[in-house]
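Before surveying the methods themselves, it helps to consider a single example record, giving the amino acid sequence and backbone structure tokens:
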Amino acid sequence: MKQRRICASAEVVEGGPGVRFSLERGGVSEPAFVVRYRGKVHAYLNRCGHVPVELDWQQGEFFDHSGLYLICATHGALYAPESGRCLGGRCNGKGLVAVAVAENDGWIVMTEEGEHGAGQQ
């Protein structure tokens, strides 16, 4: 499996700003992001489950003020950082689309073939 570096692990701090990146999905370039929550990295397409708008309220800012939830700046929909599951708001049970990431040798990497849906309930 081919892996692609997204950024250095140190760039993604617990509850801090996420790192935006792009990936190819179905022949289309899609915006995505990676955040750290409870010590683990999680990545998702940067697209609200309600309508396809980007989540961050400022460049790379995906967490709400409490640092416990990912929030859509447009609709206020809340998502679980560890799963992308819709927790409330206008996402109507539609979660974020997860992107497979891991940490290897100080880097956050994405598996090129590893994009998959998650958080759909």
Remarks:
- The chain has a mean pLDDT of 88.
